[in-house]
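Record type: monomer structure entry
Structure origin: computed from sequence
Chain ID: A
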Amino acid sequence: MAQAVKDIKMILEEQLVFNLCNSELRGNALVELSQKRETSNDLALKLWYSFGTIAALLQEIVSVYPALSPPTLLASAATRACNALALLQTVAAHPLTRTPFLKARIPIFVFPFLNTTSEAKSFEHLRVTSLGVIGALAKAEDTKVVKFLLKNEVIPLCLRIMGTGSELSKTVATFIVQKIMRDEVGLQHICATPECFFQVASVLANMVIALTEQPSTRLLKHVICCYLRLTDDPRAYTAMQTHLPEALRNGTFDNCLRDDPAAMHFLQQLLDKLAGPASVVPRPGPDPAAGGAPHPAPGHGPGGSHGGPSQAGPSHMH
């Protein structure tokens, strides 16, 4: 009996994937599949390897580009695009589809949404859900992913959102930068020139100032982890000894971090490292953000170059 029910669910899911290629049935299929993506282990495989499905999802995404500038995006159009993006996030997150997803350069289709600045709710949903796609890639901690993100200048996009976005978009963008830093290639990229390093450090410092007025434990935790990772580079380590915001040193955030012992530990680890001699920099330890990124889920409603919604909305941090 249980197997029969499982078989029926699989058939229904496959039919929904098939329906994505039918413009008249696509809207409902987007909603239904977005709701199933957290419970279906092989949805990413069905989406990627079924004929025409990815093209149909990209069609939904591209169709809203004209409404980005000037900002005329309707909530209904944003809803469909967010659900399509949520399905692309599923593909980006799966270990068997992540590499072909990257090789096909599908992530570049979300960049126009990251470039938007409108504070309208529909635009914020698009930014957060798009960040979720990039965050799913970054979470893999794969050097190939990091190189792709660096080449396509994701860091400047994230830095701008870290400076101007909502709490959730700032949190996801900071997580992405943190994961890029976690890779040695990413850390070297950020610390390669004083301009690049101080651009990142300036955004982080401004975030600390903003957090003293509007505390957010989960966002602060990612900011602290970014600073902690920067200290693994000798040049950045030296700079941090004099440029670390005073609010991180003087106990300003003790109440904010009281209910998050891990975040408090990371802050103390940061302060202990910076108290040591500049000539001795410990090697990187375990990733302090192994718990994962916040990401969009159905049901919820300015950086320069480094040279080189169901409604889709946020879910909680893990």
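Annotation 1: Strands lie at 296-298, 312-314.
Annotation 2: Residues 282-286, 289-318 have pLDDT under 50 and may be disordered.
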